[in-house]
Design a protein that fits this description.
The protein is of the alpha/beta class. The chain has helices at about 15-20, 25-45, 65-90, 105-115, 135-150, 160-165, 215-225, 235-240, and strands at about 5-10, 50-60, 95, 125-130, 180, 200-205.
Length: about 240
């Protein structure tokens, strides 16, 4: 059976180590990482993937040294502004996920502008996860649901998995089919906890600045060879 591949999510890890191995500052890795973002977004568009989510900054990353956070925020603000023409050219629609209101105001403004400007594009939807935490997203969903119960528009007996999905940050973005982490570590680091319930997971030792669309294409090929059984038997799935 042909696998459906609607949504790829990537934990873009390894920028710092990539730079340090060459005797350079971690910031050099973050700058180089932007090149990979551009290249991989282009690759996902070429493969006509409907949704790509990139984990760019976690809630936990606020615990990094102030200097590194400042640099990451500056890079983010300038990259967004610089990339809008390319997003437009490639028909990419930008969305964000996370507690965007905790970002510096200039980042919020350039993000907001880019989201509005690209909102009617019909190709790839690119979701940037920024100041994102999977647990916070679930807590925020629980708060929204509680409000509806409080105001009498939702009956607690009617709360379902669908209710949760509908109250996440981007209810129109489907669950993740393929989750990739670069940089050699094999953990989730609080990314999309709800949406990866049945994702195929791929971990690659390639550091993010070295990860390019060819690497993405190789993983996509491997994804299509995997049998996703969703709890059923292999026989059931093969005769579907
Ligand atoms: C990923 O690379 C980028 C962010 C988390 C912002 P890292 O900065 O985590 O790089 P390593 O994992 O230390 O090499
Ligand atoms: C995960 O990478 C977050 C992003 C890629 C944005 P980290 O480098 O922060 O993850 P840990 O701390 O090693 O788990
Ligand atoms: Mg890391």
């Amino acid at each position: 059976m042909e696998q459906s591949l609607k949504h790829i999510a990537i934990i873009m890890d390894g920028n710092g180590r990539w730079a340090q191995r060459q005797g350079k500052d971690r910031s050099f890795g973050h700058k180089q990482g932007i090149e990979s973002v551009r290249n991989v977004v282009e690759g996902a568009s070429q493969k006509q993937i409907p949704f790509l989510t990139l984990y760019a900054f976690s809630t936990e990353n606020w615990n990094r040294p102030e200097e590194e956070i400042d640099l990451l925020m500056q890079l983010l603000a300038s990259a967004i502004v610089n990339e809008v023409p390319t997003l437009m050219k490639n028909n990419v629609r930008l969305k964000t996920s996370g507690r965007i209101d905790t970002l510096p105001v200039d980042c919020q403004n350039s993000l907001q502008k880019a989201v509005v400007q690209t909102s009617t594009n019909t190709g790839l939807t690119l979701v940037l996860a920024l100041s994102y935490s999977g647990r916070s997203e679930l807590v925020d969903a629980a708060k929204k649901i509680s409000e509806k119960v409080k105001f009498g528009t939702l009956n607690p007996d009617d709360i379902s998995e669908e209710t949760f999905s509908q109250n996440l940050y981007n209810p129109d973005v489907p669950d993740v089919d393929l989750m990739i982490r670069t940089g050699g570590d094999t953990r989730i680091s609080n990314f999309l906890l709800w949406q990866i319930a049945y994702s195929e997971l791929f971990f690659t030792p390639i550091m993010w600045p070295d990860f390019k669309k060819e690497n993405l294409f190789d993983i996509i090929e491997l994804f299509y060879t995997r049998e996703r059984r969703f709890g059923k038997t292999g026989e059931q799935v093969q005769t579907q």
